[in-house]
Amino acid sequence: MKRMQYQHLETANASFLYWLSNYLFDVMVYTLAIIVMSIIFVVFSNSMNNSILAAWWELVVYPCGVSCDQHEMYPTEVNYKIGLALRRVRGYFCRRFYGQRYTEADQTGVDFDEECPNADMVRAIRVSKVYNMLIKTESGGQNVAADDEADAAVVNGNGQVVALDDVSFSVEKRDCVALLGVNGSGKSTMFDILTAKVSPTGGKAMIDAYDVTVEARHASTRYGYCPQDNIYFNDLSVREHLELFYRLRCCRSSAMLSEGAVIDKLMKRLDLFPVEKTAASHLSGGNRRRLMLALALLSDHASLLLLDEPSAGVDVVARRLMWRVLHEKRQSRNRTSCLFTTHSMEEAEAVCANAVVLLKGQVVWSGSIPDLKQRVSRGISISLRLDSSAIWNPDEMERYTEQIQRSLESKLSRTELERSSLPVQELEEAWKLCHDLLHKSGDTTAPTVSQQRNKDWLAGLRARFESDDSVPNVTAAIPIVEFVQEWLVQEAFIRLETQLLRDEMTTRSGEVVVPADLESARGSGTNTSGVYETSCTERFGLADVFALMEENKERFNISQYSISELSLERVFEQFQ
């Protein structure tokens, strides 16, 4: 029960140091208690009575057990004390042999109001967290992290993963702040530190003026926590979960009298009555998230909500229901502060007034959500697909194919099989022939742009066909028809980017239109899809973009297109 009450202990990756410190502490406490008890029985055996034994039990054994339980619940306290002892030993030897003491890094912040230290419900002061991950070494000598997620993490020179790097922010009382960031940015690590699951490598975090590392028990009484993972008893029903956790948090008899009313009200708000008697293991993913949120909201005395992606995996209806419940909680008589993580800008805007954006373990934005939207919300993504049937006009295909064949026949004596193929060493000359023929026919595409882009395309085309070594002693070649098709696609995109996106859209909006940094962002080979990014302005808004695309669909052979806001990942990349 106690481990379920403090969810941060439910992890299979607990540090060996935590386990060892707890084990040694238990052995020391119980061994000492047995020794003391044995001495008492030996020395005072003649004067022992039930009253003396009861008093001894109350004064010695019970406090030892409670203290042991608290240290098991919060291993960060033991870790901190061991680290403090080691620093003192190091300081002693440094002073003795080197004439100076070991000093800790500065943990004070300069961006907070030090005259009102209790004005913030949450305060992170230069918090850093470095994980000493195991590194596997391949035969080639390259270091590979044991965890696949380490590929996106920040790794320092020692092979350690830097989850948080000098992070400072605050959540004022009765305020709601969204902690935003892509996967691997450090959001969950920040929550692990706030809930005393792990200790920070540097700096400190405080909840209602309590240091969460060394005063974790006091800090835990100030918040309700909804973890990212669903943690529950498989055999207990929804109501039994709520009753159990309510009794663990509310020990007063007066609170017990209102238990049923409080639980019924919470279940009604989160629409949990239909699954009231269902075992947690049989709940759907959305209902499990509702149960986790209900456990976090259970205590009216908690002045802070820590919600780690509470709406992950739920449908739209359940998500909006959660938003309404959180809004009611914040507007209630005892207004509650809130810090929660999400991947949705829409959710952050619906629930919060302020936001903190993390990227690669660092704070890249801290301020109001309207200011954040003002900076990034004008970014749009234009996805389009060209009509291949219009690009590959049969007459045009035949004309360019015949020109290439005629040029090759004047140079080489070729068999019937070779006539339909173009050797890779002739690619550049074939492109020049088609390019000159296209511009001679009156096309207005800028030759400079075409030459610059097609140079990269020809290099990729040559590498693609030269890498095929399945048939030895045969010159690498590409079918002429396939070459013409790919070249026409490239010319169609050059014309689109030059005449529509640059001359029309960029000129009118003042914002550059660039291809997205994606593998399929721009047509390659016979792929006729493209993705571009730009920003709307006051004089050229979203409606103008749609109007421009509609007007030019037929002119540039656009079969379909879509315009959307930039994804959250693309938005955060703008902070780099």
UniProtKB/TrEMBL annotation:
It comes from the Eukaryota. SUPFAM superfamilies: P-loop containing nucleoside triphosphate hydrolases. One of its GO terms (molecular function) is ABC-type transporter activity. GO terms for cellular component: membrane. Residues 144-385 form the ABC transporter domain. Keywords: ATP-binding, Membrane, Nucleotide-binding, Repeat, Transmembrane, Transmembrane helix, Transport. The keyword rRNA-binding does not apply. The chain crosses the membrane at residues 20-44. The keyword Transmembrane helix applies. InterPro entries: AAA+_ATPase, ABC_transporter-like_ATP-bd, ABC_transporter-like_CS, ABCA, P-loop_NTPase. Pfam families: ABC_tran. This is ABC transporter domain-containing protein. The lineage of its organism: Eukaryota, Sar, Stramenopiles, Oomycota, Peronosporomycetes.
